[in-house]
Amino acid sequence: MAEASEPSVLVVGAGVIGLTTAVVLAERGHPTTIWTADPPDQTTSMAAGAVWGPYLVEPADKVERWSLHTLQVLKELAEVDGTGVHIVSGIEASRSADEPPEWAKGLDDYRAAQPDELPDGFSAGVYFSVPAVDMPVYLPYLLSRFEAAGGDIKLRTLESLTPAFDQAEVVINCSGSGARDLVADESLTAIRGQLVSIENPGLVDFFSEDTGESEDLLHYLPHGRTVVLGGVAIDGNWSREPDRATAAAIVERCASVCPAIGTAKVIDHRVGLRPTRPMVRVEAERTQGGFVVHNYGHGGAGVSLAWGAASDVHELIASSGSTLTR
Ligand SMILES: Cc1cc2nc3c(=O)[nH]c(=O)nc-3n(C[C@H](O)[C@H](O)[C@H](O)COP(=O)(O)OP(=O)(O)OC[C@H]3O[C@@H](n4cnc5c(N)ncnc54)[C@H](O)[C@@H]3O)c2cc1C
């Protein structure tokens, strides 16, 4: 339970970044409230696939630290029932025999894929095991853990951070792509993603193509009874509506590698806006209104960075110490 000696905190946002940060702070004794424009199940985070892997995100040194921290936490959560986290094995493959991604090399079971494991048209690949996160289970798990630590959540849309400064000693800005308007960050853009969720036709392993800079992605990820198919990465597109032609193309790409996908029942279409800026922003700022710690702009890797970034937020509050005055 929260102890009154720790500064009170208001977290703006209830995606994976806001919820994870709120869990960390509430469990470390900060009286913590979340204000969010959307409930967790209507956020970009809900749309994510999701699998661990630092994708579309900088700066490299912090991303490596945050992602390794998060990898460890997700592995631990995979041991716990009801978290939505599980370990999945599979292949990331390439049609052009490129070097495998650096970040994959430290993963469990990492090895070169055998030629007979690769679909037609692919020349190289690597096999590894990695945490996968079923977001419709994981976000409610994070919310219940936050509430169990004494946290409170309210639906509220902010035009600026001013009302938040009146509510708590520290404001944490976890507004994702909303930060573009909320704190006038013009460096932030959306990279639109769309996925299709289907009934699992019996898949156990994931598959992902290294598609380089292409807008069209090819990956599928089983979560027990469902499989999530991807995807797209469309820079500067802010539409949150599923596009029918995009969905059909995603199914067709995945079925070209795994034909059983082509006849499986479609359950759901998911769309999210990857909040992308040149660098993820995790930093403290003392404004005229009050003390804010920003934690947004995690691009295509928020699920993979959340625990590490939240730990840095806690450090930034702790190191501000007694100077935390409004
Ligand atoms: C299709 C797709 C697949 C992905 N796959 C993966 C993956 O496999 N692995 C991975 O690590 N990452 C993945 N990502 C990226 C990941 O989903 C994002 O990095 C992450 O969800 C960002 O989380 P967030 O909490 O910052 O933003 P969001 O989830 O968008 O949450 C932002 C929150 O802020 C609130 N908010 C915004 N503005 C305001 C305001 N003015 N007032 C009050 N509240 C406000 C919103 O209501 C919301 O609650 C994927 C993304 C997409 C779209």
Overview of this protein structure:
It contains 8 helices and 14 strands. The protein is of the alpha/beta class and 326 residues long. The chain has a single domain (9-323), classed as NAD(P)-binding Rossmann-like Domain (Rossmann fold). Strands 1, 2, 3, 4, 5, 6, 7, 8, 9, 10, 11, 12, 13 and 14 form a 14-stranded mixed β-sheet that branches. Helix 1 (16-27) runs parallel beside helix 4 (135-148), helix 1 (16-27) crosses helix 8 and helix 3 (60-77) packs across helix 8. Residues 12-18, 35-38, 43-45, 47-51, 157-158, 174-178, 182, 193, 195, 231, 272, 274-275, 296, 298-304 line the site of flavin-adenine dinucleotide (FAD). Residues 12-18, 35-38, 43-45, 47-51, 157-158, 174-178, 182, 193, 195, 231, 272, 274-275, 296, 298-304 line the site of flavin-adenine dinucleotide.
